[in-house]
Amino acid sequence: MSEHAELARPSSSRPDVGELTGSLTTWLAAKLPPDAHPVIEDVGVPASAGMSSETVLFTARWGADREPAELVARVAPVVDAVPVFPRYAMGEQFHTMRLVRAHSDVPVPEVLWLEEDPGVLGAPFFVMRRAYGEVPPDVMPYNFESWVTEASAEQQASLATNTVDILAALHGIHDPLGRFAFLNESSLSGPGPGGETRGVPGKSLLAAHIDAQRAYHRWIAERGPDAPIIGRLFDRLTRLWPEQPSDPVLCWGDARIGNVMYHDFRPVAVLDWEMTALAPPELDLGWLIFFHRWFEDLARAAGLAGLPGLFTIDRVCARYRDMTGHEPRDLEFYLCYAALRNALIMLRIQHRAIHFGQAEAPRDPDDLLMNRPALEKMLEGSYWLDN
């Protein structure tokens, strides 16, 4: 989540490699046949990994052939690390990845084991096979100076097109409400801002998603200074509420190229499934478009050219329509919602930075959000006029 994520990540939160090696060896031996005799090697915790969950890389050998298996453990954060989210459902991530891999062409790493006992590594985790490729960096953002900016216009266009195709394939999974019911078993009940009731999935699932974000906001505000502009964004969402939301699909939730590994500008691994949800497809489209625009704002502020044409509203929606036949709608609502969701995460990250002595609370709490000017323009309805 950009440079703020690195500031808010204390080095003391990183686990001891020796302890990890021993714990993983004992754990894997219990998962395999008695004569497997596993050996764990090359354990490492990358400094550039995501902040919301811990990433542990390791190699394992077992059985008669002793062939090395290059693996990754995704571990939920411990409470002492001041986690970004109040809940880390590692089981939901594990089963979502397994099902997406089985029922689509989305390149998801193979998941092997789920461990929900926190006694093994201090928190629940799952293990998957390691993938290799190039990831567009968050620090500094990929549109500053990276292998993406150094690519040709044709290569950049290929990356953008192939990324939208990920969403088209993911959203095309049949019977998402049945296959992924575990993501939100109660999501079809209760009213939303427009008075939605049970039996209208697109409306009630969207309402449930927003209700969850309101609860997340309350959780954050109980643990540090609140930013009043977030309440204003919620109010604007109510005014922009879609009259007839699109039918729900399985949404990735964190749809951005910083969560994708590429080879020759084609996705080879789609990562980070912590924010997966059943919701209208525009949830993902809005996040993809907004997140790139956020990085573009940073590039402009730094006096850099950026990549203004990479994920524009028109290009993303045109490709998605061509691939799915669905015309994205209510984008003003979903783009505002993406900005709100990102603001909540950034607010929590700033709380972490203050907690660990890496930042001071500003006099005006809205200044906790580095893109406050952009959010104010969004409230005015003028932010996307130059897109």
Low-pLDDT sequence parts: 1-12, 186-200
Number of helices: 11
Give the termini separation. Answer: 23 Å
Rg computed from alpha carbons, rounded to a whole number of angstroms: 21 Å
Instruction: Return the average pLDDT rounded to an integer.
Output: 90
Q: What would you say the CATH architecture of the largest domain is?
A: Alpha-Beta Complex
Largest sheet: 5 strands, antiparallel
Helicity level, as a percent range?
Answer: 40-55%
* CATH topology heading of the largest domain: Aminoglycoside 3'-phosphotransferase, Chain: A, domain 2
Question: What multimeric state do the chains show?
Answer: single chain
The number of strands is 9
What structural category do the secondary elements indicate? alpha+beta
In spatial order, strands of the major sheet run 1-2-3-5-4
Kindly report the name of the CATH homologous superfamily of the largest domain: Aminoglycoside phosphotransferase (APH), C-terminal lobe
* CATH hierarchy, class of the largest domain: Alpha Beta
The geometry reads as: globular
Summarize the helix and strand pattern as letters. HHEEEHEEHHHHEEEEHHHH
Proportion in β-strands: 5-15%
- Please tell me the total number of domains: 2
